[in-house]
Design a protein that fits this description.
Blueprint lengths: L16 E6 L12 E5 L4 E8 L2 E10 L4 E6 L5 E5 L4 E3 L4
Antiparallel strand pairs: 1-2, 2-3, 3-4, 5-6, 6-7
Amino acid sequence: LIEPIKEYPHKNGDNSITGGYVYRGKGIPNLVGWYVYGDFSSGRIWALKYEDGKVTGDGLLMKIRAQIASFGEDQDGELYICDHGGRILKLVAK
């Protein structure tokens, strides 16, 4: 059994984590090496940095109006968010 590296409370309406990818693109240099994931019901997207067996960074990236069903990655390492309603959104820097 391997213990989880991250747990979070459900008090903010976050109910169903949708796993993502480690960002390896060039469009958001500060995000390289961070694991990006989201919550289906709240639309929140987080990033987590895990190095040398411990979490070294963790935070909310954004909140979108979407039911996050899945994430995708293109050949350049850029990330996409698949909305349960049928949209595909690209993750970009603000």
